[in-house]
Amino acid sequence: MSDADAETGSIEVDFGESGLVPAVAQDADSGEVLMLAYVSPEALARTRETGEAHYYSRSREEIWHKGSTSGHTQSVREVRVDCDADTLLYLVEQAGGACHTGHRSCFHRTLDGENVGERVFDPDEVY
């Protein structure tokens, strides 16, 4: 890929054999990493069309709009692609919590099990 391709916005995402790429959602203001999910070409197209994050659920085998059930949507300010064009970074404005457990970030605990994240909603009241 040439530098000119990058400048014109014609970067082609490499979805590989699986048809999915990982996407990291990061708070656009604070830089906090909120979650990681997978994106299909259709999910990426919907994200670009609507300005809100869409992902592909591997367990349900379907596209999902982040926050469609909880109301905790992600407004996407920018989508970045890594140097190999096989990973995405969504810079987002997160409404509510990003994690289905009620935490702001899915990365709310250490390997030792210590909770280091903020719980921002009760999942029993939302789901």
From TrEMBL:
<feature type="binding site">
    <location>
        <position position="86"/>
    </location>
    <ligand>
        <name>Mg(2+)</name>
    </ligand>
</feature>
<keyword id="KW-0028">Amino-acid biosynthesis</keyword>
<feature type="binding site">
    <location>
        <position position="84"/>
    </location>
    <ligand>
        <name>Mg(2+)</name>
    </ligand>
</feature>
<feature type="domain" description="Phosphoribosyl-AMP cyclohydrolase">
    <location>
        <begin position="35"/>
        <end position="108"/>
    </location>
</feature>
<dbReference type="InterPro" id="IPR026660">
    <property type="entry name" value="PRA-CH"/>
</dbReference>
<dbReference type="GO" id="GO:0000287">
    <property type="term" value="F:magnesium ion binding"/>
</dbReference>
<comment type="subunit">
    <text>Homodimer.</text>
</comment>
<dbReference type="InterPro" id="IPR002496">
    <property type="entry name" value="PRib_AMP_CycHydrolase_dom"/>
</dbReference>
<keyword id="KW-0460">Magnesium</keyword>
<protein>
    <recommendedName>
        <fullName>Phosphoribosyl-AMP cyclohydrolase</fullName>
        <ecNumber>3.5.4.19</ecNumber>
    </recommendedName>
</protein>
<feature type="binding site">
    <location>
        <position position="83"/>
    </location>
    <ligand>
        <name>Zn(2+)</name>
    </ligand>
</feature>
<dbReference type="GO" id="GO:0004636">
    <property type="term" value="F:phosphoribosyl-ATP diphosphatase activity"/>
</dbReference>
<comment type="similarity">
    <text>Belongs to the PRA-CH family.</text>
</comment>
<dbReference type="InterPro" id="IPR038019">
    <property type="entry name" value="PRib_AMP_CycHydrolase_sf"/>
</dbReference>
<dbReference type="GO" id="GO:0008270">
    <property type="term" value="F:zinc ion binding"/>
</dbReference>
<feature type="binding site">
    <location>
        <position position="99"/>
    </location>
    <ligand>
        <name>Zn(2+)</name>
    </ligand>
</feature>
<dbReference type="Pfam" id="PF01502">
    <property type="entry name" value="PRA-CH"/>
</dbReference>
<feature type="binding site">
    <location>
        <position position="106"/>
    </location>
    <ligand>
        <name>Zn(2+)</name>
    </ligand>
</feature>
<dbReference type="GO" id="GO:0005737">
    <property type="term" value="C:cytoplasm"/>
</dbReference>
<keyword id="KW-0368">Histidine biosynthesis</keyword>
<comment type="pathway">
    <text>Amino-acid biosynthesis; L-histidine biosynthesis; L-histidine from 5-phospho-alpha-D-ribose 1-diphosphate: step 3/9.</text>
</comment>
<keyword id="KW-0963">Cytoplasm</keyword>
<dbReference type="GO" id="GO:0000105">
    <property type="term" value="P:L-histidine biosynthetic process"/>
</dbReference>
<keyword id="KW-0479">Metal-binding</keyword>
<keyword id="KW-0862">Zinc</keyword>
<feature type="binding site">
    <location>
        <position position="82"/>
    </location>
    <ligand>
        <name>Mg(2+)</name>
    </ligand>
</feature>
<keyword id="KW-0378">Hydrolase</keyword>
<dbReference type="GO" id="GO:0004635">
    <property type="term" value="F:phosphoribosyl-AMP cyclohydrolase activity"/>
</dbReference>
<comment type="function">
    <text>Catalyzes the hydrolysis of the adenine ring of phosphoribosyl-AMP.</text>
</comment>
